[in-house]
Amino acid sequence: MNEASPIRRRTTVRMSTSDKRLNDSALQSQYQPYKDAAWGFVNHWYPALFSEELPEDKVEGIQICGIPIVLRRVDGKVFALKDQCLHRGVRLSAKPTCFNKSSITCWYHGFTFDLADGLLSTIVANPDDPLVGTAGITSYPVEEAGGMIFVFVREDDYPLEDVPPLSQDLPIRFPENSERFPHPLWPAAPSLLDEGAVALGLHRTGQSNWRIACENGFDNAHILVHMENTIVHALNWVLPLGILPDHEEPITLTEDEDGPKGLIQWLFTDRWKPVMENPQLGLKIDALNGRFYRTSVVLPGCLMVENWPEEHIVQYEWYVPITDDLYEYWEVMVRVCKTDEEKKAFKHRFDRVFMPLCLRGFNDCDLYAREAMEEFYADGTGWDNEQLAATDVSAITWRKVASRWNRGIAKPGKGVTGATKTSSIRLRRLAEGKAPGYFVEKIEDVNSY
Question: CB–CB of 263/395 below 8 Å?
Fold first, then answer.
Protein backbone atom coordinates (compact mmCIF):
# COMPACT_ATOMS: atom_id res chain seq x y z
CA MET A 1 0.00 0.00 0.00
CA ASN A 2 1.32 3.38 -0.93
CA GLU A 3 1.40 5.53 2.21
CA ALA A 4 2.87 8.59 0.53
CA SER A 5 0.84 11.75 0.91
CA PRO A 6 -1.08 12.61 -2.27
CA ILE A 7 0.25 15.54 -4.26
CA ARG A 8 -2.03 18.55 -3.89
CA ARG A 9 -1.93 20.63 -7.03
CA ARG A 10 -2.48 24.32 -6.62
CA THR A 11 -5.93 25.32 -7.70
CA THR A 12 -6.42 28.34 -9.91
CA VAL A 13 -9.18 30.84 -9.25
CA ARG A 14 -11.07 31.38 -12.49
CA MET A 15 -11.76 34.99 -13.18
CA SER A 16 -15.33 35.67 -14.21
CA THR A 17 -17.39 38.67 -15.13
CA SER A 18 -17.76 40.89 -12.09
CA ASP A 19 -21.14 42.13 -10.95
CA LYS A 20 -19.41 45.44 -10.19
CA ARG A 21 -18.98 46.42 -13.82
CA LEU A 22 -21.06 49.32 -15.09
CA ASN A 23 -22.40 47.65 -18.22
CA ASP A 24 -24.41 44.66 -17.06
CA SER A 25 -26.94 43.00 -19.34
CA ALA A 26 -29.76 45.32 -18.28
CA LEU A 27 -27.75 48.39 -19.20
CA GLN A 28 -26.43 46.83 -22.40
CA SER A 29 -29.99 46.38 -23.61
CA GLN A 30 -30.30 50.19 -23.60
CA TYR A 31 -27.56 50.49 -26.20
CA GLN A 32 -28.18 47.37 -28.29
CA PRO A 33 -28.61 49.44 -31.49
CA TYR A 34 -25.08 50.76 -30.96
CA LYS A 35 -23.78 47.22 -30.57
CA ASP A 36 -25.50 46.38 -33.87
CA ALA A 37 -23.89 49.27 -35.73
CA ALA A 38 -20.62 47.58 -36.75
CA TRP A 39 -20.88 49.19 -40.20
CA GLY A 40 -21.89 52.57 -38.81
CA PHE A 41 -25.00 54.76 -38.82
CA VAL A 42 -26.58 55.69 -42.16
CA ASN A 43 -28.78 58.64 -43.10
CA HIS A 44 -26.24 61.08 -41.65
CA TRP A 45 -23.77 63.68 -42.94
CA TYR A 46 -20.14 62.55 -43.21
CA PRO A 47 -17.00 64.30 -44.45
CA ALA A 48 -15.99 62.79 -47.79
CA LEU A 49 -13.05 64.86 -49.07
CA PHE A 50 -11.27 68.13 -48.54
CA SER A 51 -12.39 70.54 -51.25
CA GLU A 52 -8.86 70.69 -52.66
CA GLU A 53 -8.91 66.92 -53.17
CA LEU A 54 -11.63 67.27 -55.79
CA PRO A 55 -10.61 69.93 -58.35
CA GLU A 56 -12.74 70.80 -61.35
CA ASP A 57 -13.88 67.74 -63.35
CA LYS A 58 -12.06 65.32 -61.04
CA VAL A 59 -13.73 61.99 -60.23
CA GLU A 60 -13.02 60.19 -56.95
CA GLY A 61 -14.41 57.01 -55.42
CA ILE A 62 -14.71 56.31 -51.68
CA GLN A 63 -16.70 54.03 -49.37
CA ILE A 64 -18.70 55.05 -46.27
CA CYS A 65 -20.77 52.68 -44.11
CA GLY A 66 -20.27 49.94 -46.69
CA ILE A 67 -21.77 52.18 -49.38
CA PRO A 68 -19.61 52.92 -52.45
CA ILE A 69 -19.80 56.60 -53.47
CA VAL A 70 -18.42 58.39 -56.51
CA LEU A 71 -17.94 62.17 -56.52
CA ARG A 72 -17.42 64.51 -59.45
CA ARG A 73 -17.03 68.30 -59.55
CA VAL A 74 -18.53 70.13 -62.53
CA ASP A 75 -18.56 73.94 -62.86
CA GLY A 76 -17.64 74.15 -59.18
CA LYS A 77 -20.54 72.00 -57.97
CA VAL A 78 -19.95 68.58 -56.41
CA PHE A 79 -22.22 65.64 -57.26
CA ALA A 80 -22.32 62.28 -55.48
CA LEU A 81 -23.82 59.01 -56.72
CA LYS A 82 -23.67 55.36 -55.71
CA ASP A 83 -20.40 54.06 -57.12
CA GLN A 84 -21.87 50.78 -58.30
CA CYS A 85 -23.30 50.37 -61.78
CA LEU A 86 -26.79 48.92 -61.67
CA HIS A 87 -25.89 46.66 -64.60
CA ARG A 88 -23.26 44.36 -63.07
CA GLY A 89 -21.88 46.23 -60.07
CA VAL A 90 -18.75 47.79 -61.57
CA ARG A 91 -17.33 50.79 -59.69
CA LEU A 92 -17.63 53.82 -61.95
CA SER A 93 -14.71 55.57 -60.28
CA ALA A 94 -12.22 52.79 -61.02
CA LYS A 95 -11.78 54.15 -64.55
CA PRO A 96 -13.60 57.50 -64.74
CA THR A 97 -15.41 58.00 -68.05
CA CYS A 98 -17.36 61.21 -68.65
CA PHE A 99 -18.56 62.26 -72.12
CA ASN A 100 -20.28 65.46 -70.99
CA LYS A 101 -20.76 67.68 -67.95
CA SER A 102 -24.10 66.23 -66.92
CA SER A 103 -23.33 62.52 -66.59
CA ILE A 104 -20.90 59.76 -65.73
CA THR A 105 -20.58 56.56 -67.77
CA CYS A 106 -19.66 53.05 -66.72
CA TRP A 107 -16.42 52.35 -68.53
CA TYR A 108 -17.27 48.64 -68.94
CA HIS A 109 -20.66 48.44 -70.68
CA GLY A 110 -21.54 52.10 -71.22
CA PHE A 111 -24.43 52.59 -68.79
CA THR A 112 -24.64 56.37 -68.35
CA PHE A 113 -26.13 58.11 -65.31
CA ASP A 114 -27.30 61.68 -64.79
CA LEU A 115 -25.21 63.40 -62.12
CA ALA A 116 -28.13 65.32 -60.66
CA ASP A 117 -30.42 62.40 -59.81
CA GLY A 118 -28.64 59.18 -60.80
CA LEU A 119 -31.19 58.31 -63.50
CA LEU A 120 -30.00 56.04 -66.32
CA SER A 121 -29.95 58.53 -69.19
CA THR A 122 -28.57 56.30 -71.94
CA ILE A 123 -26.49 53.23 -72.71
CA VAL A 124 -23.61 53.90 -75.09
CA ALA A 125 -24.32 51.02 -77.48
CA ASN A 126 -28.01 50.58 -76.69
CA PRO A 127 -29.70 53.98 -76.31
CA ASP A 128 -33.22 52.60 -76.91
CA ASP A 129 -33.14 49.91 -74.23
CA PRO A 130 -36.28 49.89 -71.99
CA LEU A 131 -34.10 50.43 -68.89
CA VAL A 132 -33.19 53.93 -70.06
CA GLY A 133 -35.19 56.50 -68.11
CA THR A 134 -36.75 53.87 -65.84
CA ALA A 135 -33.83 52.84 -63.62
CA GLY A 136 -30.92 54.52 -61.91
CA ILE A 137 -28.51 54.65 -58.97
CA THR A 138 -28.88 56.52 -55.67
CA SER A 139 -27.83 60.16 -55.49
CA TYR A 140 -26.51 61.76 -52.31
CA PRO A 141 -26.91 65.38 -51.14
CA VAL A 142 -23.65 67.32 -50.90
CA GLU A 143 -22.58 70.40 -48.88
CA GLU A 144 -19.26 72.25 -48.75
CA ALA A 145 -18.12 74.13 -45.66
CA GLY A 146 -14.77 75.48 -44.52
CA GLY A 147 -12.91 73.72 -47.33
CA MET A 148 -14.55 70.33 -46.72
CA ILE A 149 -17.03 68.28 -48.78
CA PHE A 150 -19.82 66.58 -46.82
CA VAL A 151 -22.10 63.86 -48.20
CA PHE A 152 -25.42 62.76 -46.73
CA VAL A 153 -24.96 58.98 -46.83
CA ARG A 154 -28.50 57.70 -47.15
CA GLU A 155 -30.25 54.41 -47.65
CA ASP A 156 -31.59 54.02 -51.17
CA ASP A 157 -35.18 54.70 -50.06
CA TYR A 158 -34.47 57.51 -47.58
CA PRO A 159 -36.60 60.48 -48.78
CA LEU A 160 -34.61 63.46 -49.99
CA GLU A 161 -37.18 65.79 -48.43
CA ASP A 162 -36.29 64.38 -45.00
CA VAL A 163 -32.58 65.19 -45.27
CA PRO A 164 -31.70 67.47 -42.32
CA PRO A 165 -29.32 70.44 -42.57
CA LEU A 166 -25.61 69.74 -42.08
CA SER A 167 -25.68 71.65 -38.79
CA GLN A 168 -27.70 68.86 -37.15
CA ASP A 169 -24.76 66.46 -37.57
CA LEU A 170 -22.12 68.89 -36.28
CA PRO A 171 -21.40 69.84 -32.64
CA ILE A 172 -23.20 72.74 -30.97
CA ARG A 173 -22.00 76.22 -31.87
CA PHE A 174 -20.64 79.02 -29.74
CA PRO A 175 -21.10 81.77 -28.64
CA GLU A 176 -24.83 81.16 -29.15
CA ASN A 177 -24.63 78.31 -26.62
CA SER A 178 -22.17 79.95 -24.23
CA GLU A 179 -24.84 80.79 -21.66
CA ARG A 180 -26.16 77.23 -21.75
CA PHE A 181 -22.68 75.69 -21.55
CA PRO A 182 -20.55 78.35 -19.80
CA HIS A 183 -16.84 77.94 -19.40
CA PRO A 184 -14.66 80.72 -17.95
CA LEU A 185 -11.29 79.30 -18.94
CA TRP A 186 -11.25 80.17 -22.63
CA PRO A 187 -13.04 82.14 -25.36
CA ALA A 188 -15.91 80.70 -27.36
CA ALA A 189 -14.76 77.98 -29.76
CA PRO A 190 -15.13 78.66 -33.50
CA SER A 191 -17.38 76.54 -35.70
CA LEU A 192 -16.84 74.99 -39.09
CA LEU A 193 -19.98 76.85 -40.20
CA ASP A 194 -18.74 80.30 -39.09
CA GLU A 195 -18.06 82.89 -41.74
CA GLY A 196 -14.35 82.88 -42.49
CA ALA A 197 -13.79 79.44 -40.97
CA VAL A 198 -10.67 77.73 -42.28
CA ALA A 199 -10.32 73.96 -41.84
CA LEU A 200 -6.85 72.41 -42.03
CA GLY A 201 -6.08 68.77 -41.40
CA LEU A 202 -5.78 65.32 -42.85
CA HIS A 203 -7.64 62.05 -43.10
CA ARG A 204 -6.14 58.57 -43.05
CA THR A 205 -7.39 55.01 -42.76
CA GLY A 206 -7.46 53.37 -39.34
CA GLN A 207 -7.61 49.61 -38.99
CA SER A 208 -10.22 49.03 -36.33
CA ASN A 209 -13.96 49.40 -35.94
CA TRP A 210 -15.21 52.99 -35.98
CA ARG A 211 -16.84 52.69 -32.55
CA ILE A 212 -13.53 51.83 -30.88
CA ALA A 213 -11.99 54.89 -32.55
CA CYS A 214 -14.86 57.19 -31.63
CA GLU A 215 -14.88 56.23 -27.95
CA ASN A 216 -11.13 56.72 -27.76
CA GLY A 217 -11.61 60.38 -28.69
CA PHE A 218 -13.33 61.30 -25.43
CA ASP A 219 -12.05 58.50 -23.18
CA ASN A 220 -11.15 60.23 -19.91
CA ALA A 221 -8.86 57.41 -18.75
CA HIS A 222 -6.66 57.25 -21.84
CA ILE A 223 -4.57 60.31 -20.99
CA LEU A 224 -1.87 57.83 -19.94
CA VAL A 225 -1.27 57.09 -23.63
CA HIS A 226 -0.17 60.69 -24.20
CA MET A 227 2.07 61.24 -21.17
CA GLU A 228 5.30 61.19 -23.18
CA ASN A 229 4.14 62.98 -26.33
CA THR A 230 6.54 65.61 -27.61
CA ILE A 231 4.02 68.46 -27.55
CA VAL A 232 3.33 67.82 -23.86
CA HIS A 233 7.00 68.37 -23.03
CA ALA A 234 7.66 71.04 -25.65
CA LEU A 235 4.91 73.27 -24.24
CA ASN A 236 5.63 72.28 -20.63
CA TRP A 237 2.22 70.73 -20.11
CA VAL A 238 1.61 68.46 -17.17
CA LEU A 239 -1.24 66.04 -17.71
CA PRO A 240 -3.14 64.36 -14.84
CA LEU A 241 -3.13 60.57 -14.67
CA GLY A 242 -6.81 60.67 -15.51
CA ILE A 243 -10.08 62.47 -14.83
CA LEU A 244 -12.91 61.05 -12.71
CA PRO A 245 -16.55 62.18 -12.59
CA ASP A 246 -17.23 64.02 -9.31
CA HIS A 247 -20.78 65.32 -9.73
CA GLU A 248 -24.26 63.98 -10.31
CA GLU A 249 -24.17 65.56 -13.78
CA PRO A 250 -20.61 65.47 -15.16
CA ILE A 251 -22.11 65.14 -18.65
CA THR A 252 -24.97 67.04 -20.27
CA LEU A 253 -26.90 65.60 -23.20
CA THR A 254 -27.67 67.69 -26.28
CA GLU A 255 -30.97 66.39 -27.63
CA ASP A 256 -32.72 69.46 -29.05
CA GLU A 257 -35.38 68.59 -31.60
CA ASP A 258 -33.71 70.49 -34.45
CA GLY A 259 -30.13 70.29 -33.20
CA PRO A 260 -27.26 67.83 -32.94
CA LYS A 261 -27.68 64.76 -30.76
CA GLY A 262 -24.87 63.85 -28.40
CA LEU A 263 -23.16 64.90 -25.18
CA ILE A 264 -20.86 67.53 -23.75
CA GLN A 265 -18.46 66.88 -20.85
CA TRP A 266 -17.90 69.53 -18.18
CA LEU A 267 -14.16 68.98 -18.07
CA PHE A 268 -11.92 71.23 -15.96
CA THR A 269 -14.79 72.26 -13.71
CA ASP A 270 -15.71 71.03 -10.24
CA ARG A 271 -17.75 68.27 -11.90
CA TRP A 272 -14.59 66.30 -12.75
CA LYS A 273 -11.67 65.49 -10.45
CA PRO A 274 -8.18 65.10 -11.88
CA VAL A 275 -6.28 62.07 -10.59
CA MET A 276 -2.84 63.32 -9.59
CA GLU A 277 -1.41 60.35 -7.70
CA ASN A 278 -1.38 56.55 -7.55
CA PRO A 279 0.55 55.64 -4.35
CA GLN A 280 0.60 51.91 -5.12
CA LEU A 281 2.54 52.53 -8.33
CA GLY A 282 4.58 55.43 -6.99
CA LEU A 283 3.12 57.83 -9.53
CA LYS A 284 2.53 61.47 -8.65
CA ILE A 285 1.88 64.61 -10.67
CA ASP A 286 3.26 67.60 -8.76
CA ALA A 287 1.62 70.38 -10.76
CA LEU A 288 -1.00 70.97 -13.39
CA ASN A 289 0.10 73.29 -16.17
CA GLY A 290 -2.12 71.68 -18.73
CA ARG A 291 -4.13 72.59 -21.75
CA PHE A 292 -7.64 73.31 -20.48
CA TYR A 293 -10.12 71.88 -22.93
CA ARG A 294 -13.63 70.46 -23.17
CA THR A 295 -14.88 67.63 -25.37
CA SER A 296 -18.23 66.83 -26.92
CA VAL A 297 -19.40 64.21 -29.38
CA VAL A 298 -22.49 64.08 -31.59
CA LEU A 299 -24.00 61.71 -34.10
CA PRO A 300 -22.92 60.18 -36.38
CA GLY A 301 -19.56 60.26 -34.56
CA CYS A 302 -18.07 63.76 -34.61
CA LEU A 303 -15.81 64.82 -31.76
CA MET A 304 -15.15 68.46 -30.89
CA VAL A 305 -12.28 69.50 -28.63
CA GLU A 306 -12.54 73.16 -27.67
CA ASN A 307 -9.47 75.28 -27.01
CA TRP A 308 -7.17 72.65 -28.50
CA PRO A 309 -4.28 72.88 -28.98
CA GLU A 310 -4.54 76.58 -28.16
CA GLU A 311 -7.14 79.33 -27.79
CA HIS A 312 -9.34 80.36 -30.74
CA ILE A 313 -8.86 76.92 -32.34
CA VAL A 314 -11.16 73.92 -32.23
CA GLN A 315 -10.28 70.39 -33.29
CA TYR A 316 -12.87 68.20 -34.96
CA GLU A 317 -12.47 64.48 -35.43
CA TRP A 318 -14.64 62.11 -37.43
CA TYR A 319 -14.41 58.32 -37.41
CA VAL A 320 -16.06 57.52 -40.72
CA PRO A 321 -16.95 53.81 -41.11
CA ILE A 322 -15.61 52.21 -44.29
CA THR A 323 -16.29 48.59 -43.36
CA ASP A 324 -16.73 46.86 -40.01
CA ASP A 325 -12.96 46.84 -39.48
CA LEU A 326 -11.80 50.01 -41.28
CA TYR A 327 -12.60 53.67 -40.71
CA GLU A 328 -11.39 56.94 -42.18
CA TYR A 329 -9.89 59.07 -39.41
CA TRP A 330 -10.47 62.79 -39.97
CA GLU A 331 -8.36 65.21 -37.90
CA VAL A 332 -9.29 68.83 -38.59
CA MET A 333 -8.40 72.10 -36.88
CA VAL A 334 -10.64 75.11 -37.45
CA ARG A 335 -9.92 78.78 -36.91
CA VAL A 336 -11.83 81.84 -38.10
CA CYS A 337 -9.50 83.90 -40.32
CA LYS A 338 -10.85 87.26 -41.44
CA THR A 339 -7.91 88.26 -43.63
CA ASP A 340 -5.45 86.58 -45.97
CA GLU A 341 -2.70 87.41 -43.49
CA GLU A 342 -4.52 85.51 -40.74
CA LYS A 343 -5.01 82.53 -43.07
CA LYS A 344 -1.32 82.53 -43.93
CA ALA A 345 -0.30 82.71 -40.26
CA PHE A 346 -2.67 79.86 -39.31
CA LYS A 347 -1.37 77.71 -42.16
CA HIS A 348 2.23 78.43 -41.18
CA ARG A 349 1.68 77.41 -37.55
CA PHE A 350 -0.40 74.41 -38.60
CA ASP A 351 2.31 73.08 -40.93
CA ARG A 352 5.18 73.57 -38.49
CA VAL A 353 3.59 72.85 -35.11
CA PHE A 354 0.11 71.37 -35.17
CA MET A 355 0.54 68.86 -38.00
CA PRO A 356 3.77 67.22 -36.80
CA LEU A 357 3.20 67.49 -33.04
CA CYS A 358 -0.58 67.18 -32.69
CA LEU A 359 -2.19 65.42 -35.63
CA ARG A 360 0.80 63.18 -36.26
CA GLY A 361 2.66 62.88 -32.97
CA PHE A 362 -0.15 63.16 -30.40
CA ASN A 363 -2.86 61.39 -32.42
CA ASP A 364 -0.58 58.64 -33.70
CA CYS A 365 -0.77 57.22 -30.18
CA ASP A 366 -4.55 57.09 -30.47
CA LEU A 367 -4.30 55.16 -33.75
CA TYR A 368 -2.22 52.33 -32.37
CA ALA A 369 -4.20 52.30 -29.10
CA ARG A 370 -7.42 51.69 -31.03
CA GLU A 371 -5.84 48.94 -33.07
CA ALA A 372 -4.71 47.27 -29.84
CA MET A 373 -8.39 46.74 -28.91
CA GLU A 374 -9.63 45.63 -32.33
CA GLU A 375 -9.09 41.88 -32.00
CA PHE A 376 -10.99 41.77 -28.68
CA TYR A 377 -14.03 43.34 -30.37
CA ALA A 378 -13.65 41.92 -33.89
CA ASP A 379 -16.08 39.01 -33.52
CA GLY A 380 -18.70 41.17 -31.78
CA THR A 381 -18.41 39.58 -28.34
CA GLY A 382 -16.13 42.22 -26.85
CA TRP A 383 -19.07 44.52 -26.19
CA ASP A 384 -20.57 41.80 -23.96
CA ASN A 385 -17.35 40.81 -22.19
CA GLU A 386 -15.76 44.17 -21.42
CA GLN A 387 -15.80 45.25 -17.77
CA LEU A 388 -16.18 49.00 -17.60
CA ALA A 389 -15.28 51.20 -14.63
CA ALA A 390 -16.35 54.60 -13.31
CA THR A 391 -14.12 56.41 -15.81
CA ASP A 392 -16.18 54.89 -18.63
CA VAL A 393 -19.33 56.84 -17.86
CA SER A 394 -18.77 58.93 -21.00
CA ALA A 395 -18.67 55.90 -23.29
CA ILE A 396 -21.82 54.43 -21.77
CA THR A 397 -23.66 57.75 -22.06
CA TRP A 398 -22.61 58.08 -25.71
CA ARG A 399 -23.74 54.55 -26.57
CA LYS A 400 -27.18 55.21 -25.11
CA VAL A 401 -27.73 58.56 -26.80
CA ALA A 402 -26.44 57.21 -30.13
CA SER A 403 -28.85 54.28 -29.85
CA ARG A 404 -31.79 56.60 -29.27
CA TRP A 405 -31.13 59.16 -31.98
CA ASN A 406 -29.36 57.52 -34.92
CA ARG A 407 -31.32 57.67 -38.20
CA GLY A 408 -30.47 54.15 -39.31
CA ILE A 409 -28.06 51.27 -38.74
CA ALA A 410 -25.90 50.41 -41.74
CA LYS A 411 -26.17 46.87 -43.03
CA PRO A 412 -23.09 44.93 -44.10
CA GLY A 413 -22.06 46.14 -47.53
CA LYS A 414 -23.09 44.12 -50.58
CA GLY A 415 -20.61 43.54 -53.35
CA VAL A 416 -18.13 46.06 -51.90
CA THR A 417 -14.67 46.10 -50.41
CA GLY A 418 -14.58 44.40 -47.03
CA ALA A 419 -17.93 42.61 -47.37
CA THR A 420 -16.02 39.38 -48.05
CA LYS A 421 -13.15 39.06 -45.61
CA THR A 422 -11.07 36.73 -47.76
CA SER A 423 -10.82 36.89 -51.53
CA SER A 424 -8.10 36.31 -54.07
CA ILE A 425 -8.18 39.99 -55.08
CA ARG A 426 -7.79 41.21 -51.51
CA LEU A 427 -4.96 38.77 -50.88
CA ARG A 428 -3.21 39.86 -54.09
CA ARG A 429 -3.44 43.52 -53.12
CA LEU A 430 -2.03 42.76 -49.69
CA ALA A 431 0.80 40.77 -51.27
CA GLU A 432 1.56 43.80 -53.43
CA GLY A 433 1.83 45.95 -50.32
CA LYS A 434 -1.49 47.73 -50.84
CA ALA A 435 -3.36 47.98 -47.55
CA PRO A 436 -7.17 48.21 -47.62
CA GLY A 437 -8.15 51.87 -47.65
CA TYR A 438 -10.69 54.58 -48.31
CA PHE A 439 -10.12 55.50 -51.95
CA VAL A 440 -10.90 53.38 -54.98
CA GLU A 441 -7.80 52.08 -56.70
CA LYS A 442 -7.78 53.42 -60.25
CA ILE A 443 -7.39 51.03 -63.20
CA GLU A 444 -4.46 51.94 -65.38
CA ASP A 445 -4.68 51.75 -69.17
CA VAL A 446 -2.63 48.91 -70.60
CA ASN A 447 -1.33 49.23 -74.15
CA SER A 448 -1.81 46.18 -76.35
CA TYR A 449 0.90 45.06 -78.73
Answer: no
